Structures are given as C-alpha cells and as structure tokens.
Amino acid sequence: MEAKRMAGVALPSSSHSPFTIHHSPSFMRQAHLVEPRRIELVTRPVPTPGPGEVVLKIRAALTCGTDLKTYRRGHPKVPFGPFGHECAGDVIAVGQGAHRVREGDSVVPTPTAPCGRCAACRRGRENLCERLFDDMVLGAYADYLLVSAKVASTHLMARPSTLSYIESAFLEPLACVIHAWNRLRPEPVEQVAVVGLGAIGMLHIAMARAAGARVVAVGRRAERLQLALDVGAHAVVDTEREHVGESVRALTGGVGPDVVIECTGNPTIWMEAPRWAATGGRVVLFAGLADGTHVAFDATRLHYDEIDIINAFHFRPQDVEEAHHLLATGGISVQPLITGVRDLDGIADVFASLDRGHGMKYAILPEPAAWV
Ligand SMILES: [Zn+2]
Ligand SMILES: [Zn+2]
Question: Ligand 2 centre from 194 Cα, in Å?
C-alpha cells in the first residue's frame, strides 16, 4: 500500500520556490514533544538571529527513525521540547557575522556540528565531538527555525538546485549512512545484507547499489520488500516466512555476505547478525539501542571466524559534504522513500500513525497548499 500511495505523492519538482518573502509575521507554530507520545503545536515568537545565527522559513521537514524513538521513549541525546531535525528552507534573517549565507538563500542544515577543537575533533572523529550536541538545532516541525551559530558556520548547505526541499532534507540521514560506508572503506564490499527496511535501511540499499555491491534486503511486509527491490536490492528475504541465515547464505552463493548492516535497532538482531556474515566478514551496527541495553555475542564465531563488528554513529563534516554531492548529482534517488506529504497541523496524527507502524517517512510542510 505504501508504494501505491507514494506513487501518488506529488512532490515539488523544481528548484523554484513557490513562496515570496515580503511579510514578516511575528508569531509561528512549532511542534514540541512534551513527553513520550504527546506532541503540542505551540505558538511562539518568530526568532531573531543573534551573532552568527540564521533564521529559516521551513519549507519541508522529514520524519525520522530517531524522532520516532524519541517520541516513544525519549532519547539519551535528544531532549524533549522543540521537535524535528531534518529540514530544508529559505533564509529570512542573518545574524551579525554569519557569512556563509544571505537572506533569500535556499538551504539545508544538519542538526549538529562539531566544535573542531576537542580531542575527538583533532583526531578527525568529529562525529564523537565532546560538544556535538551543544547548540543542537531542533524544532524543524515549525514555520521558522533558528539555526545556531555553530551549525550555521559549518553545516548550513546550499539546497542543490536540482532538488526539491523535500529531497534535499535527506542530507542528514544520508550523511549518517555515508559515515557508515566510510567506516567500511577502503576494503571492497562485494555482497551486502541490509537488515531492517525503514528509511535508513533503504538508504543503505541505495548506497550499496551505488558502490557496485550485490544487495540482499532482509525485512518484513510485502510493501517494504517491494520498495527495497525498487531502490536497488537484488534479492529480498522475508523474515516472517524464511529462515534468515539460510536464505541470506543461499542468496550469496553459499558463503554469506561480506558485510551485514543492522538497521533494526533490535538487540536480538544485533546478536544474530554476526552469524549471517561470511567468515571473515564485517557487521555494521547502525541502529542504536535504548540506553542501558546489553548484548552478548558468540565469542567463538567472532574470534575464530574473524568477524569484525563496526559501529557507526552520526556523521562528520566530510560525510555531510559527500551526502550533499551525492544528492545534488542524482547519485541516489530519495523520492521513493517518502510515504506521503502532510500539513504541519497534522504532526501529532503523523507520529501516532508511525507509532502504529503505518508509513515510513513523511514530509511535513508548513504550507502544503502551495506544494501539492
Ligand atoms: Zn534524522
Ligand atoms: Zn569537538
């Protein structure tokens, strides 16, 4: 059903903005996650930018698996309050000293930026920056968004002229996915199993395909398995009908994939994944687990078969640059991943529906009438 609905979604196709900016309202709507499973749309003043800050008129924001986790149970890194972090929009005000952009520029921010000075940053591990989550830009489900000076000076990217606001808002999730692929480099990847077919799993499938690998997608529900094939999987394994280990092995010439990418955020799958990889293979644990979760691995399998466990978290500036380039050049197509387009006023209903397992990734538009 999702695939059918998506086919009917009319996405803005050109780089032309349907809006003009000649009024400056003083109030705006902003969605707040007040506590698990309670979103309120509050009215608050449109922010004015301080030194180095930038204010955006939001044109599109995307729902995300991290948002859904936070909605259900809170998140160790994401506080309650202004909600949403994947978006694209137009600059309406620029604070003193914010040199990267000008009023009227069409841009896409990421929610965080590294400090560039701490020990992790100096080692080139900016995704592990001590101050990564300071000044985080949250509140994308809104009419306007204040971008912190830290993000505005590092990760406020021009919206590629080839892409709609909705498509360009994939910058942040794609940067996370590319970070994982950069952790796999420079060793070649020939056969990949992607386990878990949410939006992130689909982006990994598209990346694997772009990297020239053969891809087996592992998940459930007919519409997700079909979408996995549509975005580039060579074969699928239905976890509700098949034995995952046996099917994955059979589909990879009897040896198993050299890389398994875990995208379910399920501790049982974390523990199973090393069994599905080829001997000498690698497992990427991509989807984080709830705070305090412990997992155990088969030590014999890990040691004597040299299965490497790789963790991938968040992104570095170079991952953002690479994601921006890949989107801008059409290296992967993200439009099929949008389940539907919804009005900002319907944000609570959208998350209630995602919580029930309906839909994968919605675009939330403050002014939908002008788009579809
Ligand atoms: Zn996200
Ligand atoms: Zn740092």
Answer: 31
125 C-alpha to center of ligand 2: Å? 8
Q: If you measure from the C-alpha of residue 150 to the centroid of ligand 2, how many angstroms do you get, rounded to a whole number?
A: 11
With cut-offs at 50, 70 and 90, classify the pLDDT of residue 1. Answer: very low
Domain 2-170+334-370 has CATH 3.40.1000.20: no
Predicted structure pTM score: 0.91
Cβ-contact 216, 248 below 8 angstroms: yes
CATH 3.90.79.10 for the 178-311 domain, yes or no: no
Calculate how far, in angstroms, residue 305's C-alpha sits from the geometric centre of ligand 1: 34
Structure tokens given for 45: 């003043």
For residue 61, give the ligand nearest its CA: 1
Distance 309 CA to ligand 1 centre (A): 23
Cα(109)–Cα(172) distance, rounded to whole angstroms? Answer: 8
Question: CB atoms < 10 A from the CB of 332, how many?
Answer: 21
271-301 pLDDT per residue, tens: 999 999 999 999 999 999 988 999 999 999 9
Distances in whole angstroms, Cα of residue 306 to Cα of each of 11, 184, 269, 281, 283: 46, 15, 19, 7, 11
**What's the DSSP call for residue 83?**
-
Ligand 2 midpoint to CA 120 (Å): 6
